[in-house]
Amino acid sequence: MRFGGDVRVSASSTAPAPSPSRLAVVRFHVPRRCLSLSICAYRKTEEQRLEGERKLKRTGQKKQKQVQSKTVEAAGYVVVVTTLNCLDAQGILALYRHRWQVELAFKRMKSLLGLSHLRKKNPEGAKAWLQGKLLVACLIERLIATGEHFSPLEGQGSQRASDTPALPLA
């Protein structure tokens, strides 16, 4: 496999989404080193594929660029490349999902708590500021979790608040 080369995935577009599988173990030779990579992939559901295709086309229109058919085809798959060879494909994809949840938590903290820029210049002040923000984030997460499982009506024979459907805001 050469860098920048095409990787073809052939499967019938009408076939059901297969279970995740390890597609290949690829070895890259770097001077004085051999790098072994696993490529794990699975096909998205038809609904996910269509949603991804719609987003790609909308982005292409905004940037006034034509979306290539290869890009649309690739958007129908989730592909994870890793150096972890001790896990099977299911384990690698589960680990990727957990990693993505951590990524989303940091993104949420950055936007809600103003963590995008470090406000202090000296190391001690920066450390204290960051630890304070992380403490606030943990407290907020705890309050949200508690609020989701608390109902003032509980014990009075009614449903818990988390069991009732939410009302639309708009």
UniProtKB/TrEMBL annotation:
Q: Which residues form the Transposase IS4-like domain?
A: 49-139
Q: Which Pfam families match?
A: DDE_Tnp_1
Quote the InterPro entries the UniProt record gives: RNaseH-like_sf, Transposase_11
One of this protein's GO BP terms?
DNA transposition
Gene Ontology MF terms in the entry: DNA binding; transposase activity
Kindly provide the name given to this protein in its UniProt entry: Transposase
